[in-house]
Amino acid sequence: MMPDVRLVMVIRQDVERMGSWLRDGDVSASWYGTDGQGEAFHIGYLPRHMVEATPWEWNQVFGDDGRKIFSVLTSDGEHIGEGQMVIDRALSEAQLFILIGRKDLWYKGYGTAALLQMLGLAFDTYGLHRAWVDVPEYNLPARHMCERIGFLTEGRFREAHPKDGLWHDSVIMGLLYDEYARRRAGMMEARDLAAA
Fold first, then answer.
1. pLDDT tens-digit profile of 139-172?
2. Arithmetic mean of pLDDT, 106-120
3. pTM for this prediction
4. CA 26 to chain CA mean position, Å
5. Rounded CA gap, 16 and 137, in Å?
6. Domain limits of the chain?
7. Do the beta carbons of residue 49 and residue 18 sit within 8 Å?
8. What is the CATH number of domain 5-195?
């Protein structure tokens, strides 16, 4: 069963929660690991900097038309994670990122539901041709989630992700609009049945 989620504009309290989730070793390890000083890597911005950002700085990050950043909320409005979409209009594609920061909600379909929402935006709203993800090789649950949705493995980036003092490959997985369109009805039906 798949839960219902919403993607909404990010607010400062969401950024604070992202920062606190990323301080958890399990969460940061499933995301992009930590730097040499133990600070968690984050994509697109540093949560500790954005908490105190000026309105101009905030708009530079969260108003960027090429990088859409969303908070993931449950159906009752609880913030549980973040989704990002880096759009390359010239290539008609987007790289997608999903992080469910609430560990108690892992393996319960929230990441899948959020990724389906992102795919709907990429293909149906923005009219893109291709969506892709870069999954660290050690994040097997994320790889399996993408495979279930229909992403295909397209290649690897060698030693692209640091974790625990070692470098790990990442798996590049892609989904084309035609592939998504063929699977969309079944994916949406599964989501709607779960929400009923």
1. 899 999 999 999 999 999 999 877 777 888 999 9
2. 95
3. 0.89
4. 16
5. 28
6. 5-195
7. no
8. 3.40.630.30
